[in-house]
Specification:
Blueprint lengths: L7 E2 L1 H14 L4 E8 L5 E8 L6 E5 L2 E5 L11 E7 L2 E7 L5 E2 L5 E3 L1
Parallel strand pairs: 1-6, 2-5
Antiparallel strand pairs: 2-3, 3-9, 4-5, 6-7, 8-9
């Protein structure tokens, strides 16, 4: 039986979040949430936000990533990363809980 662990945030994702906050002058956190919908059943909602009372807060060097209590079970053992590729730069989720995902990378099923 695999041990359920909270999501892990890469150093690259924390560094990019810090760059965004420095550039905008706002000390916002990165919220990673799972919502119903999308072409595969669930989709990721990634945005800058402020912490709420029931959030899991992952922090490094002042950069914070938030996961709400409803989304947390869907993100157990996931890796939150930042990808800067030819097709575009974005935060990405490597989710071992997803049985399939769509080509856009923001939608998945369990």
């Amino acid at each position: 039986m695999d041990l359920a662990l909270p999501p892990r945030v890469t150093d690259r994702a924390y560094a990019r979040l810090k760059e965004i906050c420095d550039a905008t002058g706002e000390a916002k956190s990165l919220r990673v949430a799972v919502e119903g919908g999308g072409c595969s059943g669930f989709q990721y909602d990634i945005k800058l936000d402020d912490p709420a009372a029931d959030d899991l807060v992952l922090e490094k060097d002042g950069a914070k990533v938030l996961v709400d209590s409803v989304s947390l079970p869907f993100l157990q053992n996931a890796v939150i990363d930042y990808s800067d590729e030819l097709i575009g730069a974005r935060f990405v989720i490597e989710n071992p809980n997803a049985s399939s995902s769509c080509g856009c990378g923001t939608s998945f099923s369990i």
